[in-house]
Amino acid sequence: MGILSKPTALITSTETELNCIVTSITLDAIGSTVDGTASYSWNTGETTSSIDVTMPGTYTVTVTNESSGCSDSFSIDILENIDVPTALITSESTELTCIRRRIILDASSSIFESDFSFEWNTGETSTSIEIGEPGDYTVTITDPESGCTSSETITISQTDVLKCNSNMALFKTAEISGNGYVGDIITYTFRVFNTGNTVIEDITINDGVLGILNLPISPGTLYPGEVGSVTASYTIVPSDMARGFIENSAEAAGKEAYGPMIYDISDAGDDTIETPDAQGNFDGEPDNDPTVIYLTGPELIVYDAISPDDNDGQNDAFKIGGLENYPQNNVKIYNRWGVLVYDKDAYHEGPYFIGISEGRITIRKGDKLPAGVYYYVLNYYDGESMRSKAGPIYIQR
């Protein structure tokens, strides 16, 4: 009588875990050891030497030696790793307009783990993207371990971009504090209007005469119909008085959101009515007229007596009130015989005449002039022409 041979059951498989990539696993018992003809019985009810499974669980095969009736069983556990993300796209709008030229598409509110990857149909791999063209945008989220993916698509539409119009208008006005003389302050107010239908950002003012560069307005971003403003001050100097006016234009510079730079030259107040420049000229463009302030200097006051030797600190020098407003000037002083004893340009700057000879006479230069009557001649430019003023001056010793 022969010895009964008991088989040795064995299940082999290239995978033991189901996921989004591996959706079916083959379990093979053909490697079992059987001395004779073998039969196979799986706990799934199948009787083949191998089976394909698509669900996790414990799978058992019983291998029987048909000659001896002896059998052996083997079990294998099939696991499942299917962590499927959920893609979700959010955005502030789904329509591109003249005001909203760019849209951010955000997938960060999707359901995913930290090591999951993102890929948009634009080729970008961030959780959010910024787009400026209409169309369908799709994000795909992938679990690198299981291969599971989820996709979401959003459609972005667009209004007719040809109707978009980026424009602004700068108006500049001025207000003088005081009489408009040297040292007085002029306050300029710059107002920028968004006259288009797009958003304009980072708006600044440039004015060469005032010496300002990239002066920001408030607010610096203007939506259609909004107005921003800023002020700047200027101190009147002698050269302004000599010219008789202050004329200047400013420039506003801004940037269309996600678009080109935009510029506008200031107007004096009403861009439908043309105003002339300081010389009375018109250029045919009413929307960029310069701001002109005409300066009329004060009446000159001549203090016609000096007493340099009385040590009271008063009337020690010959002074002309308001002369600083006419910096192009000259003062000459003559004695009673018409001999020049003093001559100075830009007299307002000093030093002033204190009864000391500066001319070519018998008295040496630098010596005191004798008391008596002398005569001054003042020549000055008032912004239009040279003017003269003359009269007596008294030296008291």
What does this structure look like?
By secondary structure, this protein is mainly beta. Helices cover 2% and strands 42% of the residues. It contains 1 helix and 28 strands. The strands form 9 sheets. A 5-stranded mixed beta sheet has the order 23-28-27-25-26, with no helix packed on it.
Summarize this entry quickly.
This protein has one helix at residues 238-243, and strands spanning 17-18, 25-28, 38-42, 50-53, 57-65, 71-80, 95-96, 103-106, 117-120, 128-131, 135-142, 149-158, 168-177, 185-194, 200-207, 212-216, 227-235, 245-248, 251-256, 261-265, 291-294, 301-302, 305-306, 320-321, 329-334, 340-345, 372-381, 386-395. The chain has 397 residues and is mainly beta.
- Low-confidence segments, given as residue ranges, are none
User: Helical percent range?
Assistant: under 10%
Largest sheet: 5 strands, mixed
- What's the pLDDT, averaged over the residues? 87
Structural category: mainly beta
Provide the gyration radius in Å. Answer: 48 Å
What oligomeric state do the depicted chains represent?
A: single chain
Number of DSSP helical runs? 1
The main sheet orders its strands as 23-28-27-25-26
Shape: rod-shaped
What portion of residues belong to β-strands?
A: 35-45%
SSE run: EEEEEEEEEEEEEEEEEHEEEEEEEEEEE
* Strands, count: 28
The end-to-end span amounts to 165 Å
